[in-house]
């Protein structure tokens, strides 16, 4: 069973940057598309970005396109989300997802 642990969240000023990481246990990481979701207080969880098993195909929500970059390293079972030009509306708990498996989330807070 794959387990996921996110890290890298924190408090940052608007226009700043953060890099989130998702570390996966287990040997089947490369078999899964990796997705990042986020959930702001009082709102539903929403899709942020995804990357295919090989890393050759990526997709982004319109709200983060051009600012966020998703990547993965199958050799060490990790995925990352580089977030630049952060806005207060990016404030949320960010979750890494593989199929039905979720991490515990990492808080990102962007101050204006």
The rounded distance between the terminal residues' Cα atoms is 40 Å
Number of strands: 11
Main beta-sheet annotation = 7 strands, mixed
Overall average pLDDT: 96
Unreliable stretches covering 5 or more consecutive residues: none
Percent of residues in β-strands: over 45%
Helix content: under 10%
Number of helices: 0
The sequence of SSEs as H and E is EEEEEEEEEEE
Q: What Rg, in angstroms, do the CA atoms define?
A: 13 Å
- Give the overall shape: globular
Structural category is: mainly beta
Detailed description of the structure:
With 112 residues, the chain is an all-beta fold. The protein is built from no helices and 11 strands. The strands form 2 sheets. Strands 2, 4, 5, 6, 9, 10 and 11 form a 7-stranded mixed β-sheet that branches. It starts with a strand and ends with a strand.
Would you summarize the structure shown here?
With 112 residues, the chain is an all-beta fold. It has strands spanning 4-7, 10-13, 18-24, 34-39, 46-51, 58-60, 68-73, 78-83, 92-98, 101-102, 106-111.
Characteristic terms for this protein:
51% strand, 4-stranded antiparallel beta sheet, 112 residues, mainly beta, 7-stranded mixed beta sheet
Helix-strand layout with pairing:
Elements lengths: L3 E4 L2 E4 L4 E7 L9 E6 L6 E6 L6 E3 L7 E6 L4 E6 L8 E7 L2 E2 L3 E6 L1
Parallel strand pairs: 2-11
Antiparallel strand pairs: 1-3, 3-8, 4-5, 4-9, 5-6, 7-8, 9-10, 9-11
